[in-house]
Amino acid sequence: MSDIATYNFAYLDEQTKRMIRRAILKGIAIPGYQVPFASREMPMPYGWGTGGVQVTASIIGPDDVLKVIDQGADDTTNAVSIRAFFRKVADVETTTDTARATIIQTRHRIPEHPLSEGQTLVYQVPIPEPLRFLEPRETETRKMHALEEYGLMHVKLYEDIARNGHIATTYAYPVKVEGRYVMDPSPTPKFDNPKMHMSAALQLFGAGREQRIYAIPPHTSVVSLDFEDHPFEVQRFEKPCALCGAEQVYLDEVILDDRGGRMFVCSDTDFCEKRREAGHVGELGMAVDGLEAVR
Amino acid sequence: MSVTVSSPADDTPLLRVSSVSKSYGARTGCEDVSFELWPGEVLAVVGESGSGKTTLLNCISSRLMPTSGTVSYRMRDHTWRELYRMSEAERRFLMRTDWGFVHQNPADGLRMTVSAGANVGERLMAVGDRHYGNIRSTAIDWLGRVEIGADRIDDEPRAFSGGMRQRLQIARNLVTSPRLVFMDEPTGGLDVSVQARLLDLLRGLVADLGLAAIVVTHDLAVARLLSHRMMVMKDGRVIETGLTDRVLDDPREAYTQLLVSSILQV
Q1: Which DSSP helix (H) or strand (E) runs through A28?
Q2: Domain with CATH 3.40.50.11310 in chain A
C-alpha cells in the first residue's frame, strides 16, 4: 500500500460491510424477509442500483469475477459503469460470460444460462415491498408480513383479471418464498420467476433508497402467486430471436425503422452472442464474421 | 313492543362487556360500561357528540385497548375468549371473519383504488379463497343483496355515490357471514331518502342473517328503526338502557327526555 489516501477495498469501509453482511446473513436465514439496513450514500444516484452495489461491495473478494447486466445486456450504461466501478475500487476481474462469473449483479433479468452452485446473483431493487401500492402504511405492511396476512396480494391479481381477463402483471410478479414470506422479485419479468425456484445460486436483493436487503438461499422454493382457475403463466413469444434463433428465451423488441419494422432479439446479450459464435443464425442475423461490420 | 326471540336455543350471550373504561390522560372517554349482547340482537348506543359512544365502540371492537375492564366474546366453538388476551393475529383474524366494522365514512372501510368486486372479495381471499370464478360470483351475489347492479362490479368505489359506497362497505363486511357487526353512524352524511333505503336494507339483512349488531348513532330515528335495545350515554357513562321502544316512548332520565324531545318533528 502506498501512503496516498485511497479507497478501501470495494469502496465501502469495513464496518459498513460488516453491517451489510449481517443484514445479508439475516436475510438468508429468513428467506424472503426484508431486513432493514443502514444504506449508505453511493457515488451514483438512487435508482441506478445503489442497493445492489452495496450488496456486491460487501460480498466481493479479490478472487471474484464480476458480471453486471442491465435489462439482460452487458453493454448498457449502467452495466458498463458498475463494472468499471468495481474494477477501479476492488481491482477485480470482470466478465460478460455468465458461466465464468462468481457474482452477477443484475437489473431486471436472470441470465438464460443456468446458474450453478457457488454463483451469487445480486438484484438491484427499487421497491422491495410487494404490498406497497395496495397498503400505503409501512407499519401495516410489516404487520401483514409478520402475521402472514397476504389476502391483499390476491386482490391485486383479482383486479388484473377483472380488468384484462388474465393476470396482466408482467414484471415484479409477487412470489411466496419457502411457503412463508411474499416477496417482490424486483422488476424482473415474470418470465424469470420460474428460474428463482430451487435455483442453485444464492440470490441477494438490495434496495438502497428503501434500505432493505432480502435473500433467497440456494435450493429454496419460490412460488408465483395465482388463482386456481387462472394459473401462473410466463410470457410466450411468437418468433424465436431474430439474430440467433433461440426459442424459450426472453426477447426484447427492437424498432428497425419508422415504417413499423421491428425485430425481437434475445434480451440476454451474452447468451445471444455465444449462440451466434456457435453458428446459430436467426432470420435477420448474419454469420459472426459479418457482425462487426453491422456494429 | 319489539321483543326479539331470535333463536330459542341461543340463550347465552355472544359478547360480554364488563366495566370497560377508557381514559385519555385526565379525560374520560367512557367509564364503567357493562352490558351483554345476544346473538341476533341489535343494540343502539345513542348520545350526543363527545359522550363516549365511539370510544366505547372502538374499545369493544378491538380497535382501542380499554384502560380497564374486559370484553369477552363467544367464539364459534362456544369457548369464551377475552378480547385483549388474544394474540394480535387472532384478533385480526376475528375482525375479518366473524366480525364486521362499518365506518361512518365509507372511504375508511373501503379500498378506494380497487374495484367493487375486489372490495367484496378481499375478505374471501384473506381467508384463503383462491378461485377467481367463485370469488367473483360471490361478489356479484353480495352486490345484488345490497342493491348494486352486477354491471358495476368492475367500477371503483370512487365512481359510486355516497349511498352506494355505504352499501358496498356493508357487503364487504358481510361476505364472510360474520356473527357480529359494529356500525359507527352508518347513515351519517347521507341524505334522508338514501338513509331510509339504507336503513331498510340493513334491517332486512340483519333479520335475514341473524346478525348481532352494535350501532353507534346520534340519530334516534336510526335507533328506533334498527335496534331492539338501546343504551343512552352521557359524559362517558351509560345513563339509561332498555328496550328501544320503552326508552324512546317513556324516557326515564332527564337527559334522555331532553334527547327525545329535541327530535325535529316535521
Answers
A1: helix A14-29
A2: 14-224
Class of domain A14-224: alpha beta
Question: What is the spatial distance between Cα B16 and Cα B51, in angstroms, rounded to a whole number?
Answer: 21
When CB atoms are compared, the residue of A158, A161, A163 closest to B125 is: A158
Residues of A with catalytic function: 32, 241, 244, 266, 272
Residue B6 has a pLDDT of 47
Q: Which residues does chain A have with pLDDT short of 70?
A: 1-5, 286-295
Same domain, B251 and B192: yes
**Cell numbers for A21:** 453482511
Mutate to test the interface with B, among A131, A142, A154 (most CBs of B within 10 A): A154
Say which of A143, A155, A226 has its CB closest to residue B125.
A155
For cell 335495545, the residue is B229
The residue among B82, B45, B51 whose CA lies nearest residue B66 is B82
The pLDDT tens digits of the residues spanning B155-184 come to 999 999 999 999 999 999 999 999 999 999
Which residues of A, range 120-139, sit inside 8 Å of B by Cβ? 134
Domain's final residue, options B141, B160, B177:
B177
Q: Does B8 touch chain A (CB under 8 A)?
A: no
Residue B9 lies in a domain: no
Distance CA A74, CA A68 (A): 6
B190, B164: one domain: no
User: What are B80-129's pLDDT values in tens digits?
Assistant: 999 999 999 999 999 989 999 999 999 999 999 899 999 999 999 999 89
Closest-CA residue to A10 (of A79, A46, A60, A51): A60
Is the whole-model pTM more than 0.90?
no
CB A163 to CB B154 under 8 A?
yes
Is B115 in the A-facing interface, judged by CB distances under 8 Å?
yes
CB atoms within 10 A of CB A22: 14
Domain end position, chosen among B143, B177, B211? B177
Residue B44 maps to which CATH number?
Answer: 3.40.50.300
Q: If you average pLDDT over every residue of chain B, what do you get? A: 90
In a domain, B143, yes or no: yes
Q: In terms of residue numbers, what domain contains B139?
A: 110-177
DSSP for residue A206: E
B229 touches chain A (CB under 8 A): no
For chains A and B, CB pairs below 8 A equal 56
Tell me how far apart the alpha carbons of residues B186 and B53 are, in angstroms, rounded to a whole number.
13
A108, A173 contact by CB (below 8 A): no
Contact yes or no for A252/A265 (Cβ under 8 A): yes
Asked if A147 reaches chain B (Cβ–Cβ under 8 Å), the answer is yes
Pick A159's closest partner by Cβ from B92, B115, B123.
Answer: B115
